[in-house]
Amino acid sequence: MNKRVEEILNKQIEAEAVSSQLYLAMASWAESSGINGTADFLYLHSDEEREHMLKLVRFVNERGGRAIIPSLNIPEQDFESLTNVFTLLLEHEIKVTNMINEIVFVCLEEKDYSTHNFMQWFVAEQLEEEALARNILDKLKMIGNDKAGLYLFDRDLETLQNADPNGAQA
Ligand code: FEO
Predict the structure, then answer these.
(1) What's the pLDDT at 158?
(2) For ligand 1, what atom is nearest to the CA of residue 16?
(3) How many A from CA of 150 to the centre of ligand 1?
């Protein structure tokens, strides 16, 4: 496997692991705050990030590279509010999108068209994840500090998740 591509894919493996840990910390905060619909949504989202990481690990190894499993720093544990959680989540996803775009760029520079092709799934996934995070954040901005609104928001996230057998794509 092209060394430059292998290196940047290993960076992405780390980024997906960081995402999974961050969303897990958010899920734990939400659950312990009694915001259970949001907690379920975030637990599922954390699992999805781990799947993204595994997808990359398997790809690198199958292509004759060596996937490196990173150690991680402790993620943030305390959040001010749901708006704070989803603002951080969106910021994080935008950062990940930029990283994915950089990989696509490197693939083209290195003429690695099969990795370029493989990365198209991630490009599409990032579009969906950013759109959903923006949508959730817009709803939270409308609700503001209205307790009844927040209660319904939390219940809606639970419903959204139960309605989608593949889980919400956040
Ligand atoms: Fe794996 Fe949310 O990007």
Answers:
(1) 81
(2) 1
(3) 25
Is residue 170 one of the residues assigned to a domain? no
- List pLDDT tens digits, range 102-160: 999 999 999 999 999 999 999 999 999 999 999 999 999 999 888 999 999 999 888 77
Q: Residue 125 domain-assigned?
A: yes
Pocket of ligand 1 (CB under 6 A): 16, 19, 49, 52, 93, 96, 129
Retrieve residue 110's tokens: 């290195």
Domain that holds residue 55: 3-69+77-162
Alpha helices by DSSP H, listed for the chain, are 3-32, 36-62, 82-109, 113-143, 147-163
In ligand 1, which atom is closest to the CA atom of 48?
A: 1
**Whole-number average pLDDT of the chain:** 93
Residues 100, 14, 43, 167, Cα dihedral to 10°: 30
Cα 75 from Cα 2, distance rounded (Å): 32
What percent of the chain has a predicted confidence (pLDDT) above 70?
A: 94
- Nearest ligand 1 atom, CA 53: 1
The answer as to whether 130 is a domain residue is yes
Indicate which residue's Cα is closest to atom 1 of ligand 1. 49
